[in-house]
């Protein structure tokens, strides 16, 4: 997908999350956010259409097929953390439900998610 920024997206409360994915290993395409429903958990989290999903709750997505991703998403009951890669040319979108910068807790969550993703890749 070229150069871009890595961003941690967190959502709580369980499904529906309010986004649709496309791609996967069997399609030889990176897993990407295809659509975000307005006024959903996803739209309030800062997730953008076109974001590449690197990991879901610490599970790397590069070698997962679309059905495997759906199975993983369906197993999540309350808290969803996604490490995403956003292209540098993606326009910045203001978060619907947040009027303040990311908290220290959000930034620490990003660090732990990145470490979990790297650890899973090394062990897998």
Please describe what this structure looks like:
The protein has a domain at 4-87: Roll (Pdz3 Domain). The chain contains three helices and six strands, in the order βββαββαβα. The protein has helices at 41-45, 66-74, 104-123; strands spanning 4-12, 19-24, 29-36, 52-56, 59-60, 79-87. Strand 4 (52-56) and strand 5 form a beta hairpin. It starts with a strand and ends with a helix. With 124 residues, the chain is an alpha+beta fold. A four-stranded antiparallel beta sheet has the order 1-6-4-5. A two-stranded antiparallel ribbon has the order 2-3.
Average pLDDT:
83
One letter per element, helices H and strands E, the order comes to EEEHEEHEH
Strand-pairing-aware structural class: alpha+beta
CATH hierarchy, class of the domain at 4-87:
Mainly Beta
**Cα end-to-end separation:** 23 Å
How would you describe the shape?
Answer: globular
Q: CATH homologous superfamily of the domain at 4-87, by name?
A: PDZ domain
Number of helices: 3
What's the architecture of the domain at 4-87, going by CATH?
Roll
Order of the strands making up the biggest sheet = 1-6-4-5
Rg measurement, Å: 14 Å
Q: Mind summarizing the main beta sheet?
A: 4 strands, antiparallel
Here the CATH topology of the domain at 4-87 equals: Pdz3 Domain
């Amino acid at each position: 997908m070229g150069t871009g920024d890595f961003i941690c997206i967190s959502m709580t409360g369980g499904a529906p999350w309010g986004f649709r994915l496309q791609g996967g290993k069997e399609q030889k395409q990176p897993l990407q956010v295809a659509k975000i429903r307005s006024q959903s958990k996803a739209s309030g989290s800062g997730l953008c259409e076109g974001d590449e999903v690197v990991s879901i709750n610490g599970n790397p997505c590069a070698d997962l097929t679309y059905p495997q991703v759906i199975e993983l998403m369906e197993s999540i009951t309350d808290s969803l953390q996604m490490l995403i890669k956003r292209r540098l040319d993606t326009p910045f979108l203001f978060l619907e439900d947040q009027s303040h910068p990311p908290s220290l807790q959000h930034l620490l969550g990003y660090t732990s998610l990145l470490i979990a993703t790297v650890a899973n890749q090394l062990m897998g």
